[in-house]
Amino acid sequence: MTSTVSCADIITLATRDAVAFSGGPKYAIPTGRRDGLVSNNSDVDIPRASAPVQFISQFFANKGMTVEEMVVLLGPHSVGVAHCVSFQRMLLSFNGKHDPTMDPALDSKLVKVCNPKAGRVQVSPPSAFLDLNTSFIVDNEFYKQILLNRGVLQIDQELALDSSTKDFVSSFAVNGDKFQKSFADAMIKMGKIEILVGNDGEIRKTCRVFN
User: Fold this and answer.
1) Distance (Å, rounded) from C-alpha 137 to C-alpha 22?
2) Which domains does the chain have, with CATH numbers?
3) 153/46 Cα distance (integer angstroms)
4) Could you tell me which residues are annotated as the binding site?
5) Which end of the chain is less congested by CB atoms within 10 angstroms, N or C?
6) Is the pTM value of this prediction over 0.70?
7) What highest taxon heads this organism's lineage (predicted)?
8) What pLDDT is stored for residue 96 in this prediction?
9) What's the burial of 2, exposed, middle or buried (CB within 10 Å: 0-12/13-18/19+)?
10) CA–CA separation, 209 and 98 (whole Å)
11) Cα separations in angstroms, 118 against 38, 85, 108, 112, 121
12) Residue numbering of the annotated binding site for heme b
């Protein structure tokens, strides 16, 4: 049997379906991607959660994405968790005082989560939901939360504060339909970045290894 569906397409389609199952938009995804022949840890190119907005904006711009698309693609931080190591520096950088950009109640809660009582057995690294209101739904609640200074990650909260991104945050916060449409469009566009087509790469028979 000839292989016709690549692992790259499977991952892209699974992501699309996971978004839809989580309350996000349903959208069509072009297929035809092929799988790479090289896989190195050193090639991973993902910004850190503590990177400033301007750095993240330039990262997206280098991939052909706009600032608005960057803001909308961070919207699904309404789902999932972050390990304390990703944001603990924000809790410890103000000489025992609250981070002035974070809601004091959230700050106190995160401090407790990331500093469990002595003697308590940890079965996994401590973590916190990125959106405490709709933690399992892809919606525009994330934007509402960061406007209330309830962003867990540094980059999330800075979106609501930076002059280049705060208007987009406000717009998505008040218009859930606009967020859904813009997110779908941005996902389709991002899914076309640096892909292999034609005779490049291969279609793997087993996704974890090259043919």
Assistant:
1) 5
2) 47-190 (1.10.420.10)
3) 15
4) 47, 77, 131, 134, 139
5) N
6) yes
7) Eukaryota
8) 66
9) exposed
10) 47
11) 45, 18, 18, 12, 9
12) 77
Residue positions forming the annotated binding site for Ca(2+)? 131, 134, 139
Instruction: Point out the annotated binding site for substrate.
Output: 47
Beta carbons within 8 Å of 59's beta carbon, 6+ residues apart: 47, 51
pLDDT tens column, 75-111: 999 999 999 988 888 886 666 677 888 998 999 889 8
Query: Which ranges in 34-103 belong to alpha helices (H)?
Result: 53-62, 67-73, 88-92
Average pLDDT, integer, range 200-209: 92
Q: Look over the chain and give the mean of its residue pLDDT values, rounded to a whole number.
A: 90
Enclosing H/E stretch for 174: helix 166-174
- For residue 48, give both structure tokens: 């850190």
Calculate helix-pair angle for 176-190, 166-174, nearest 10 degrees. 120
Q: Decide if 35 contacts 6 (C-beta within 8 A).
A: yes
